[in-house]
TrEMBL record:
Residues 1-14 have a biased composition (Polar residues). Residues 442-555 form the FUZ/MON1/HPS1 third Longin domain. It is a peripheral membrane protein. This is Vacuolar fusion protein MON1. Required for multiple vacuole delivery pathways including the cytoplasm to vacuole transport (Cvt), autophagy, pexophagy and endocytosis. GO terms for biological process: autophagy; protein targeting to vacuole; vesicle-mediated transport. Coiled coil: none annotated. The lineage of its organism: Eukaryota, Fungi, Dikarya, Basidiomycota, Agaricomycotina.
Length: 566
């Protein structure tokens, strides 16, 4: 499916809806000053476009009243459905190439906030991250009604709507019956990236309501209000949606691992292996994982089970929710959709703290001094806003809480004994690195994915210009990061041909006035590097090779290899 441009819908037939509401099969898109492109999957494989133009004012120039009754909304939706059905029955328009349609790139600079909508197959709202005040309630209802009408029209013709492009935004649709997902993202963001966001939103909802539960509820009661069942998860959903555009690990379907000495990682892994006298009681255990913040330290698992990165991201979102984060012990029913989208598992999550030495320090003489200093160090490791958070998670297919808790206690004691937990916390504080450590001229940032390990690593971002972080405030740095990350998305999308390109690429190079970005993929790795735009292409290739060499030298620290099985 070829990508589309400001105002298209690809389907079997093509039509233009003019501002006056009159259907035409011959109007040119160049006649319009606004509009939106709708792209769909055609069951005949065609990629023709339907151009939509909405009238922003009444026939007399007055602003339309958005406070309408549900009956009026339903009537408008039905009229839209009938218009589109008639238009799709007409002859085809010649295809319009997106490259032939003028676009003002200045629209891309403000990065409008991403908006997400979830509705049922009956058109009932389920979730949105759009902030709604009292006066906007009916407007959202109208919007959901139009979305449902658009989806229904194409479904009636055994087709699927893919996206609407109306700069400065792109509206992307993902159909996962009995739920429909819609997101509004910046136009510069590739369609495939928006689709990844929607897929992860779908997986997160499935982690709360399994696929079989959704099917059963909405089959029996098509108009059931799912918002009641998801009411306690709104904060988790919104936090995850904020995290999605910032995570290259999610984009690349990988895990982000903590940079750690291999010997220390091995000691943490050994602590997760169940003792021989408990193995028969732990036959239903699927995974035992140690996280530090949003990075994986190690994973222990039975030989017959593998780990899907998407499930790990869902698990991280769950244990990072306000109701769980920081708690000493939580027992959570959870569905890991890539493991089994129709069944519930149970997860035991425990945020680990260093043992208290207050009693020991009180009994020690003041001149010894060692215990107070150790307590101060422990407070620095576990307190404060930037202190690393270590979480032990055990996922079980059974609901036997007591057996899982006993194993968790054994693993926790092992980590605390021998100073393993304290050393892990210290190492976590030193785990980040910058491009300065690599010493490669002109290098500003990079992402490296180890394809065999399905893991990514990257340095911290200090700005596009060398030493710019010393002079710029955090807001400016975040804007710079957003612009750079969007270039990473564009290059990643081009290399993998995820948005309808004719073929995949092995190397892609993009240069702007501020930065150049190169992506390179081989059988063993993917690398995306940001460089000074003053460097020639030959220097960019040399820098990429230098990064690859450095990663290979540091591979034992950067990636989790040979995770224990039991």
């Amino acid at each position: 499916m070829a990508s589309a441009s400001p105002a298209q819908v690809s389907s079997d037939q093509a039509v233009t809806i003019e501002p006056s509401g009159v259907l035409s099969s011959s109007a040119s898109i160049s006649e319009f000053s606004h509009g939106g492109n709708i792209i769909s999957n055609s069951h005949h494989g065609s990629s023709d476009h339907v151009y939509l133009m909405e009238d922003s004012s009444g026939s007399d120039g007055a602003t339309p009243n958005l406070m309408r009754s549900p009956e009026e909304v339903a009537a408008d939706a039905e009229r839209l459905r009938e218009q589109l059905k008639k238009s799709l029955s007409r002859g085809r328009e010649p295809r319009t190439d997106i490259r032939d349609i003028p676009y003002d790139p200045s629209h891309e600079q403000k990065f409008p906030p991403r908006q997400f909508f979830v509705l049922t197959h009956a058109g009932k709202p389920v979730f949105t991250n759009r902030k709604i005040d009292e006066t906007e309630g009916d407007d959202i209802t109208n919007l959901i009604g139009v979305m449902h009408a658009l989806i229904s029209v194409f479904e009636d013709d055994q087709d699927k709507i893919r996206s609407i492009i109306a700069p400065p935004v792109r509206i992307t649709f993902t159909i996962r019956p009995p739920l429909y997902y819609v997101c509004v993202t910046p136009f510069a963001e590739p369609e495939s990236v928006a689709r990844i966001y929607l897929e992860h939103l779908h997986l997160l909802i499935l982690s709360v309501l399994t696929g079989s539960q959704l099917e059963r509820i909405l089959t029996r009661h098509a108009n059931y209000d799912l918002r009641r069942l998801l009411s306690g998860t709104t904060t988790m959903l919104e936090s995850y949606l904020d995290h999605l555009p910032r995570s290259f690990a999610i984009l690349a379907s990988s895990l982000s691992t903590l940079r750690l000495d291999s010997g220390l990682r091995l000691r943490v892994a050994d602590a997760l292996v169940p003792p021989p006298n408990m193995k028969t009681r732990l036959k239903d255990i699927l995974y035992a994982i140690v996280f530090v913040d949003d990075k994986v330290v190690t994973i222990a698992r039975p030989k017959k089970h593998t780990v899907h990165p998407a499930d790990m991201h869902i698990l991280l979102a769950t244990i990072g929710s306000p109701a769980v984060k920081g708690s000493a012990a939580s027992w959570l029913p959870i569905c890991l959709p890539r493991f089994n989208s129709n069944g519930l598992l149970h997860a035991y999550a425990s945020y680990l703290q260093l043992p208290s030495n207050s009693a020991a320090s009180a009994s020690q003489p003041a001149e010894a001094g060692e215990a107070p200093r150790e307590n101060e160090e422990d407070a620095a490791l576990t307190g404060g806003t930037h202190a690393p958070a270590v979480c032990l998670v055990i996922v079980s297919a059974s609901g036997d809480f007591e057996v899982v808790r006993q194993w968790a206690d054994v693993a926790t004691n092992r980590l605390r004994d021998g100073e393993t937990l304290r050393q892990l916390l210290k190492a976590a504080q030193r785990s980040t690195y910058s491009v300065d450590e690599l010493g490669i001229p002109g290098l500003r940032h990079f992402f490296f994915k180890s394809r065999p390990n399905v893991q990514v690593t990257s340095p911290i971002f200090n700005g596009i210009e060398a030493h710019a972080h010393d002079e710029r405030d955090q807001v400016e740095l975040e804007d710079e990061w957003e612009r750079l990350f969007n270039l990473y998305r564009v290059v990643w999308d081009a290399i993998h041909a995820k948005s309808g390109q004719e073929c995949t690429l092995k190397l892609q190079y993009v240069r702007t006035e501020a930065v150049s970005v190169m992506g390179w993929i081989t059988k063993s790795f993917e690398i995306y590097i940001a460089l000074s735009p003053r460097l020639p292409k030959s220097a960019a290739i040399g820098a990429a090779n230098a990064v690859v060499s450095w990663v290979k030298r540091e591979e034992a620290k950067l990636f989790l290899r040979d995770a224990p099985v039991f």
